Amino acid sequence: MADAAAPRGAGPLTGVRVVELAGIGPGPFAAMLLADMGADVVRVDRPEPSPLGISPAHDLTNRNKRSVLVDLKSADGPATVMALAERADILIEGYRPGVAERLGVGPGECLAANPALVYGRMTGWGQVGPLAPRAGHDIGYIATAGALGMIGTPVGPPAIPANLLGDYAGGSLYLVTGVLAALLNARATGEGQVVDAAIVDGTAHLTSIVWGMLASGTWQDGRGRNLLDGGCPYYAVYETGDGGWMAVGALEPQFYREFVRLLGLAADDLPDRNDPRRWPELRDRFAARFKTAARDEWAAVFEGTDACVAPVLSLREAARHPHLADRGTFTEAHGLVQPGVAPRFSATPGGLRLPPAVPGAHTPEVARDWGVARLGARPETSTSPAAPPATSPAAPPDESPDEPPAAQEAER
Fold first, then answer.
1. How many CA atoms lie within 13 A of 50 on its CB side?
2. I need a surface site. Which of 177, 273, 274, 399 has the fewest CB within 10 A?
3. What distance in Å separates the CA atoms of residue 402 and residue 412, rounded to the nearest whole number?
4. 7-55 per-position pLDDT tens digit
């Protein structure tokens, strides 16, 4: 893996200034996406250590950013953030509804100072609705949106997709889409606006195609019974003889024929794949065959074919996969193996310009570059505060409501 460090200023968002009010979860990841594409992202960190239990130097969601320390509860904290907002194109916050307003850095104050500002709000439940003020996490949001109930086998509990589906797909990606669309409008009209990105909204939106299938009668409202949720035997995962797993996605007839051939079965001897009543029998035939060899042996059989079959890899295995290595999907930059920048741009490629921002490390630099004198006047702070141990207990969710809860997930 080659070093992916790139010159400062690389990416299609070069020249765009972003203020990120520090949190955890989808807000920081959204800001990382903007930074990866070249935006100058200044993360406003609080003096307290992060509740994540991870060294700031290893928190990849803070790569390509610069960090300043501001205590929003201090006398001059809100004014310092407002000075940054006046010079920004986008501001991102992930507090519970009403917290930013109580801190004096809500959209009303910020848009009054900078009418063209795009003010992005990242929450789980949204800014309005009965659950808006309540605490929450990814698992509850995707459960409420109907997505969690779609994942897994018909028997037993739903499968938990880490926090990728809610926080990052339904949250971060929708926030980025929203603020970039609003930025286009602001540059055309001079008018900024508030972007309300709620994880429940984004996750529900991701299920649009399933709602269409449900309306047409081609989707059963239950997991593990449909074409794309593991119910279909040729769109499923099978255990191999050594305890590994192979993912099969041979949906189209031509790919299915190739799959069956390479699996060593005769298509004429198999149950009709188009008859869901025969799917259990067909699944048993495939399962028995996959158990006859190890995962890597099956991977070698299907490698380079159109059978649409792939080994299920761990994170470290994925980083070593020949295809991903050839593309540089994973790379090593600033001493850390990590996913590279995505998506890719032919004329203005992004890059990994900066390592994860250590809280407060860039305060004098940002004060100079953004022309915020009050930042430069602040006492110099340590650039390497110790992170709490991984076993540190999270602060209770009912922590003082007039500040971002120390252990809150950014969308909470």
1. 28
2. 274
3. 14
4. 455 899 999 999 999 998 999 999 999 999 999 999 999 887 766 678 8
Q: How far apart are the C-alpha atoms of 375 and 19, rounded to whole Å?
A: 14
For the stretch 246-268, pLDDT in tens is 999 999 999 999 999 999 999 99
Query: Is the separation of the CB atoms in 318 and 340 below 8 Å?
Result: no
What DSSP assignment string belongs to 132-154? TTS---HHHHHHHTTSGGGSS-S
Record the tokens describing residue 372, joined without a space: 């915020």
Per-residue pLDDT reduced to its tens digit, 345-395: 999 999 999 999 999 999 999 999 999 988 866 444 444 444 333 333 333
Taking alpha carbons only, the member of 318, 320, 176, 302 closest to residue 248 is: 302
Kindly list the strands in the beta sheet with 17-21, ordered across the sheet, starting from the edge strand earlier in the chain. Answer: 65-69, 40-45, 17-21, 90-93, 118-123, 193-198
Angle among Cα 193, 199, 205 to the nearest 5 degrees reads 90
Residue 117 class from Cβ within 10 Å (0-12 exposed, 13-18 middle, 19+ buried)? buried
Q: Are 199 and 138 in contact (CB under 8 A)?
A: yes
Alpha-carbon distance 393 to 324, whole Å? 37
Locate 258 and state its tokens.
């190739």
